[in-house]
């Protein structure tokens, strides 16, 4: 397995007899190493051979989703480990699923009918209890009012008084008046008598309902309501809602018709209530008896339904996987074509070269198991299109490969940046995040994810945990490198420690009164590892750390950019492209190192010699006045002559990158059509690695102006990018300084400030605030910030030197990936 290059791929053709086609595709799905090419891409899904089988699998998938929804609604669990039952084929499974669906639909229909009847009886009971109370109290009140009135009162005068004062009367009094009129005039005809309608309505609609009744009857009604006293299941939404019992008193047949229509429009259920108390009690007892019987029937139905769903749930996962596999098999068979005899299926696709023996063995087993008289033909073909890219990864390298693939999938056999990103990515993160206290916290989090790897891998995680679990080994390396860089910076939650021996500095006087003003003096050998702890708190701490981290960022940036250009050389050499080596790699190396490689050399020389030279002045006047005497800024003998030579080489490298390659490509194209070097051109070094978006991809469409413009853009991009990319690496210095200073602020202004007080409450509060700020700001926000900046440095500054990233992934037909997919 070559991690730097993708696996070698072979374009293969399969000729499969019809009787063994399904089994052969099934075995290849279990193997998961063949990516089939769609030979029927000009046909719609409904024009393909196995469309009926795909429809059947789709219908079975619908039934399985129906079972899953029913199990979820019932509050049951789907077993991940199915019960052991004999294997069944697709036809038997289809019959079983149909029977289970019919049984469940019938049970659901019966349950809905029983539930609806139960709800209606429950509402009827509530109406009887509430509305019956209204009627009894109304009769009693009307009887007492009648005894107080004069026996010779004239009915017609009462009616006139009522019609004149109707709007001014209170609702409770209106009810008494209506009852009083009915009581004193019993011989009134039924059509002109006082009637009532009782029912139940949603509490949220009661107020609108009352207003509508008042307007429709022009106030000739009396509306009385009361809470139902219990939640009732709504027949539309199926949820438990609050309802209100109402009684509407009215007079006349026309008013009754209007009220009933309004009840229908407001989804109010009306129920008849006897006026006599004895009849009310009798009806209530009958309704209560029916309710208890329905409760028993509903409970029995629910138990039977849950038993059926539990038996289905034990096999649901296995059935779902089986249907998914069969549907995937028929989808793959639809990508194959029939041969002329209509007895064999012809398929084409890609497979890794190392997998050819395994594929042949699987096809041989399919032939034997299907009792086919004709074997399956498997042979390698030549392909015109570019092969897919396939990197074999494990749990450790998978996350790093995904980081690279998020930028773009590598071309076939192109150098893989993930090999180097395994080290460079967490290291650049640690340069910005360096604190071995924070690194230990990240290490504990990574170890917790790794130790629970098997348990978490079998669970359904949310998006954040899934991302963290997938990158657990990335977090592990980031933590280890953060500890390493933290030891170099000598920071443990911003506090330095004398880990590697005593400091090399001491105070000028015995009392150290001038340590922060005059400074320290060196009296022994330098500190053995990392930054001397005595720099912390001194007056020169910030200038020293700024200089150190800024120069270190430039060195790391120049080294990584040189690595990227060096990889472009190995890529060109691997593909035999001598043009890219001579006219791309060489001038790029010269230009980058003549300027920024020289700057890195000056930094190293200054560190080694302890010179006080101003590197800003040296680099600026290298361009503005290259012949000027360096004076105190000279670091070594011959520096001036070397600067002039490097400047001339950098200037010469620009036209070297721009002009030769397009003209050489034009000459090769011209010679091809003159017939002189046609055979050589097809296998020439220059023709094996084609530039992206280049017209040389098709010789007949060669366009010199397009090739020249592309090369000019590429050259300008590199020249400008060399400056901007080097400056971009200064983010290592900026984020490292920001992380260190932020950690110092939290330590000094929160923790130490709280510790100055003798109150235990203030100390605990300060510790809690410090822990919260460290966890959520430094360990979460700063981690994410450093991660994104390290990602940017790899995608833009490093990978654009050699990586094209315009390939496509190898996506084999595999049952493993199908099982992981969700509907």
TrEMBL record:
<dbReference type="Pfam" id="PF01496">
    <property type="entry name" value="V_ATPase_I"/>
</dbReference>
<keyword id="KW-0375">Hydrogen ion transport</keyword>
<comment type="similarity">
    <text>Belongs to the V-ATPase 116 kDa subunit family.</text>
</comment>
<feature type="transmembrane region" description="Helical">
    <location>
        <begin position="552"/>
        <end position="570"/>
    </location>
</feature>
<feature type="transmembrane region" description="Helical">
    <location>
        <begin position="590"/>
        <end position="607"/>
    </location>
</feature>
<keyword id="KW-0175">Coiled coil</keyword>
<feature type="transmembrane region" description="Helical">
    <location>
        <begin position="472"/>
        <end position="489"/>
    </location>
</feature>
<feature type="transmembrane region" description="Helical">
    <location>
        <begin position="641"/>
        <end position="659"/>
    </location>
</feature>
<dbReference type="GO" id="GO:0007035">
    <property type="term" value="P:vacuolar acidification"/>
</dbReference>
<dbReference type="GO" id="GO:0051117">
    <property type="term" value="F:ATPase binding"/>
</dbReference>
<dbReference type="InterPro" id="IPR026028">
    <property type="entry name" value="V-type_ATPase_116kDa_su_euka"/>
</dbReference>
<comment type="function">
    <text>Essential component of the vacuolar proton pump (V-ATPase), a multimeric enzyme that catalyzes the translocation of protons across the membranes. Required for assembly and activity of the V-ATPase.</text>
</comment>
<dbReference type="InterPro" id="IPR002490">
    <property type="entry name" value="V-ATPase_116kDa_su"/>
</dbReference>
<keyword id="KW-0406">Ion transport</keyword>
<protein>
    <recommendedName>
        <fullName>V-type proton ATPase subunit a</fullName>
    </recommendedName>
</protein>
<feature type="transmembrane region" description="Helical">
    <location>
        <begin position="427"/>
        <end position="451"/>
    </location>
</feature>
<keyword id="KW-0378">Hydrolase</keyword>
<feature type="coiled-coil region">
    <location>
        <begin position="90"/>
        <end position="117"/>
    </location>
</feature>
<dbReference type="GO" id="GO:0016787">
    <property type="term" value="F:hydrolase activity"/>
</dbReference>
<keyword id="KW-0472">Membrane</keyword>
<feature type="transmembrane region" description="Helical">
    <location>
        <begin position="760"/>
        <end position="781"/>
    </location>
</feature>
<keyword id="KW-0813">Transport</keyword>
<dbReference type="GO" id="GO:0000220">
    <property type="term" value="C:vacuolar proton-transporting V-type ATPase, V0 domain"/>
</dbReference>
<keyword id="KW-0812">Transmembrane</keyword>
<keyword id="KW-1133">Transmembrane helix</keyword>
<dbReference type="GO" id="GO:0046961">
    <property type="term" value="F:proton-transporting ATPase activity, rotational mechanism"/>
</dbReference>
């Amino acid at each position: 397995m070559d991690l730097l290059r993708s696996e070698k791929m072979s374009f293969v053709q399969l000729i499969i007899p019809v009787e063994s086609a399904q089994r052969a595709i099934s075995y290849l799905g279990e193997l998961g190493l063949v990516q089939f090419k769609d030979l029927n891409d000009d046909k719609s899904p409904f024009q393909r051979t196995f469309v009926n089988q795909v429809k059947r699998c789709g219908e079975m998938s619908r039934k399985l989703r129906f079972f899953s929804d029913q199990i979820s609604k019932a509050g049951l669990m789907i077993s991940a480990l199915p019960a052991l039952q004999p294997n069944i084929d697709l036809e038997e499974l289809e019959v079983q699923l149909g029977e289970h669906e019919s049984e469940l639909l019938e049970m659901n229909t019966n349950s809905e009918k029983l539930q609806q009847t139960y709800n209606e009886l429950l509402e009827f009971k509530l109406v009887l209890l509430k509305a019956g109370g209204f009627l009894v109290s109304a009769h009693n009140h009307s009887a007492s009012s009648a005894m107080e009135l004069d026996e010779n009162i004239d009915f017609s005068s009462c009616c006139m008084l009522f019609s004149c004062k109707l709007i001014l009367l209170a609702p409770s009094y209106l009810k008494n008046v209506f009852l009083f009129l009915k009581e004193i005039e019993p011989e009134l005809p039924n059509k002109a008598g006082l009637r009532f309608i009782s029912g139940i309505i949603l509490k949220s609609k009661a107020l609108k309902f009352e207003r509508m009744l008042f307007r429709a009857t022009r106030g000739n009604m009396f509306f009385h309501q009361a809470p139902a006293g219990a939640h009732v299941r709504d027949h539309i939404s199926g949820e438990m809602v609050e309802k209100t019992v109402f009684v509407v008193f009215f007079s006349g047949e026309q008013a009754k018709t209007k009220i009933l229509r309004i009840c229908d429009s407001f989804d109010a259920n009306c129920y008849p209530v006897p006026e006599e108390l004895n009849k009310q009690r009798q009806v209530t007892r009958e309704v209560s008896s029916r309710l208890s019987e329905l409760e028993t029937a509903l409970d029995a139905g629910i138990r039977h339904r849950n038993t059926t769903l539990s038996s289905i749930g034990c096999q649901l996962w296995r059935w779902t996987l089986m249907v998914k596999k069969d549907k995937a098999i028929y989808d793959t068979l639809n990508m194959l074509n029939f041969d002329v005899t209509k007895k064999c299926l012809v398929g084409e696709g890609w497979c890794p070269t190392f997998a050819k023996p395994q594929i042949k063995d699987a096809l041989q087993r399919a032939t034997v198991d299907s009792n086919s008289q004709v074997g399956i033909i498997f042979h390698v073909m030549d392909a015109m299109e570019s092969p897919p890219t396939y990197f074999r990864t494990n749990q450790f390298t998978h996350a790093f490969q995904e980081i690279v693939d998020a930028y773009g999938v590598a071309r076939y056999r192109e150098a893989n940046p993930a090999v180097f990103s395994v080290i460079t990515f967490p290291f650049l993160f640690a340069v910005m995040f360096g604190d071995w206290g924070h690194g230990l916290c990240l290490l504990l989090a990574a170890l917790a994810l790794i130790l629970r790897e098997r348990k978490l891998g079998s669970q359904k995680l949310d998006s954040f945990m899934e991302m963290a679990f997938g990158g657990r080994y990335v977090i592990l390396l980031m933590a280890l490198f953060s500890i390493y860089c933290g030891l170099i910076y000598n920071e443990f939650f911003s506090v330095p420690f004398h880990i590697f021996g005593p400091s090399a500095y001491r105070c000028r006087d015995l009392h150290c009164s001038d340590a922060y003003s005059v400074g320290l003096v060196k009296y022994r050998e330098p500190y053995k590892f990392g930054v001397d702890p005595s720099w912390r708190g001194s007056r020169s701490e910030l200038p020293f750390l700024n200089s150190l981290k800024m120069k270190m960022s430039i060195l790391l940036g120049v080294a990584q950019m040189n690595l990227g250009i060096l990889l472009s050389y190995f890529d060109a050499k691997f593909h035999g492209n001598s043009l890219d080596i001579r006219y791309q790699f060489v001038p790029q190396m010269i230009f980058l190192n003549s300027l920024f490689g020289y700057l890195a050399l000056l930094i190293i020389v200054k560190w080694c010699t302890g010179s006080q030279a101003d590197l800003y002045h040296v680099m600026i006047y290298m361009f503005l006045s290259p012949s000027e005497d360096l004076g105190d800024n000279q670091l070594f003998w011959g520096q001036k002559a070397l600067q002039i030579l490097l400047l001339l080489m950098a200037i010469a490298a620009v036209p070297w990158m721009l002009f030769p390659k397009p003209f050489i490509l034009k000459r090769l194209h011209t010679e091809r059509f003159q017939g002189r070097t046609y055979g050589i051109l097809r296998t020439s070094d220059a023709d094996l690695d084609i530039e992206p978006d280049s017209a040389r991809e098709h010789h007949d469409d060669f366009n010199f102006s397009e090739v020249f413009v592309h090369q000019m853009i590429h050259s300008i991009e590199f020249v400008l990018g060399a400056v901007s990319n080097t400056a971009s690496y200064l983010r290592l210095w900026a984020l490292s300084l920001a992380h260190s200073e932020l950690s110092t602020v939290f330590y000094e202004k929160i923790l130490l400030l709280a510790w100055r007080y003798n109150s235990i409450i203030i100390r605990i509060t300060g510790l809690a605030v410090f822990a919260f700020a460290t966890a959520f700001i430094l360990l979460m926000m700063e981690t994410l910030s450093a991660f994104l900046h390290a990602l940017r440095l790899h995608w833009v500054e490093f990978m654009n030197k050699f990586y094209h990233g315009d390939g496509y992934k190898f996506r084999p037909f595999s049952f493993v990936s199908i099982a992981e997919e969700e509907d």
